[in-house]
């Protein structure tokens, strides 16, 4: 049903030189050479796009920002709407990674328009997927659930494994966040299988992270940690700095749910350091929340914890992370409803609030 995974963001001659599993240091070196040797504006646009994506994945946000803008300028000089759409997709994805969600939506919406005008089906699909993921990250499931389903159907129709894995794991994440653990596990496991068959190592790493998350909620701590170790190895091989940091944050979650608060605190601290190094405010805020909860379980003064939760609630509101803000509110309610000493650990999975489930996949 699916072919081998490919990376449409590597275009022109780069498409034959690089693959979906190329390490991002390799991508950066190859694309930088191609940009220096480019003979046309379109070639420069394509090379700069790959430079931008490599830097973004490596957590080098300033360099990524410079590169996607260079790609856009060159694409405009080449009068190529599709290339402009790809550059804006890269810029919108970077904006989302940096926590600038309104900017991400504007850039991605413009990318959708340009891709449609230029007849670039893949750029159109990736830009729509970017909009869907932005809404999902914010917790606006009602607005983007149908779009995720539509994108999954399109990916399956065209046999595009990489996009199928993305859409399926996104739908799984929404089910997981609304309490549909059985469906989430089914979808995460299926996306991991598709990624493995298509040799999409990055997609498999993200899917394994999702499987581990749900297994942890269900009390299968050691299985979850084993899967996260497998995913971590993939992240290190491919130089996936952001994915590695999110893997570490998830390991912190798993340890926290298991009541291993010292280890959770150490792991959240590691993730926090990684996110700060790559200037990723969403990851920073989520790691700080995990760290605050771990410290509270280890006996930190309750007033200090409540003060930090207030700061975090403001950060989540500013970034637009509605689901994460709800988690702050829930933990604050739990702290204030109990005596300062002897606050028990939450039940497995209790850190996630439930809301109406999203539609099941077809």
From TrEMBL:
<feature type="region of interest" description="Disordered">
    <location>
        <begin position="339"/>
        <end position="362"/>
    </location>
</feature>
<dbReference type="Pfam" id="PF13424">
    <property type="entry name" value="TPR_12"/>
</dbReference>
<dbReference type="InterPro" id="IPR019734">
    <property type="entry name" value="TPR_rpt"/>
</dbReference>
<dbReference type="InterPro" id="IPR011990">
    <property type="entry name" value="TPR-like_helical_dom_sf"/>
</dbReference>
<protein>
    <recommendedName>
        <fullName>Tetratricopeptide repeat protein</fullName>
    </recommendedName>
</protein>
<feature type="compositionally biased region" description="Polar residues">
    <location>
        <begin position="349"/>
        <end position="362"/>
    </location>
</feature>
């Amino acid at each position: 049903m699916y072919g081998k995974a490919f990376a449409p963001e590597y275009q022109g001659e780069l498409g034959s030189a690089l693959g979906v599993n190329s390490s991002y240091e390799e991508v950066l070196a190859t694309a930088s050479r191609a940009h220096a040797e480019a003979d046309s504006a379109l070639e420069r646009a394509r090379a700069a796009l790959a430079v931008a994506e490599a830097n973004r994945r490596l957590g080098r946000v300033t360099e990524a920002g410079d590169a996607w803008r260079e790609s856009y300028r060159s694409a405009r000089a080449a009068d190529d709407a599709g290339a402009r759409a790809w550059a804006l997709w890269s810029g919108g994805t970077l904006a989302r990674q940096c926590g600038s969600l309104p900017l991400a939506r504007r850039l991605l919406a413009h990318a959708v328009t340009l891709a449609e005008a230029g007849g670039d089906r893949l750029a159109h699909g990736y830009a729509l997927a970017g909009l869907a993921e932005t809404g999902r990250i914010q917790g606006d499931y009602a607005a983007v659930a149908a779009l995720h389903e539509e994108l999954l159907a399109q990916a399956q129709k065209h046999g595009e494994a990489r996009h199928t894995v993305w859409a399926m794991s996104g739908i799984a994440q929404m089910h997981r966040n609304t309490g549909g653990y059985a469906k989430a596990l089914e979808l995460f496991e299926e996306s991991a299988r598709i990624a493995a068959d298509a040799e999409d190592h990055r997609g498999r790493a993200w899917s394994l992270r999702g499987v581990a998350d749900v297994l942890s909620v269900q009390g299968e701590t050691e299985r979850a940690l084993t899967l996260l170790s497998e995913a971590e190895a993939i992240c290190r091989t491919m130089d996936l700095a952001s994915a590695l940091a999110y893997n570490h944050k998830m390991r912190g979650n798993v340890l926290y749910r298991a009541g291993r608060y010292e280890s959770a605190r150490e792991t959240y601290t590691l993730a926090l350091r990684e996110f700060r190094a790559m200037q990723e405010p969403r990851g920073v805020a989520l790691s700080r929340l995990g760290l605050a909860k771990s410290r509270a379980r280890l006996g930190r003064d309750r007033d200090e914890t409540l003060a930090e939760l207030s700061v975090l609630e403001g950060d989540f509101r500013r970034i637009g992370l509605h689901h994460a803000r709800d988690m702050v509110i829930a933990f604050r309610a739990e702290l204030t409803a109990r005596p300062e000493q002897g606050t028990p650990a939450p039940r497995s999975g209790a850190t996630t609030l439930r809301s109406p489930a999203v539609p099941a996949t077809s």
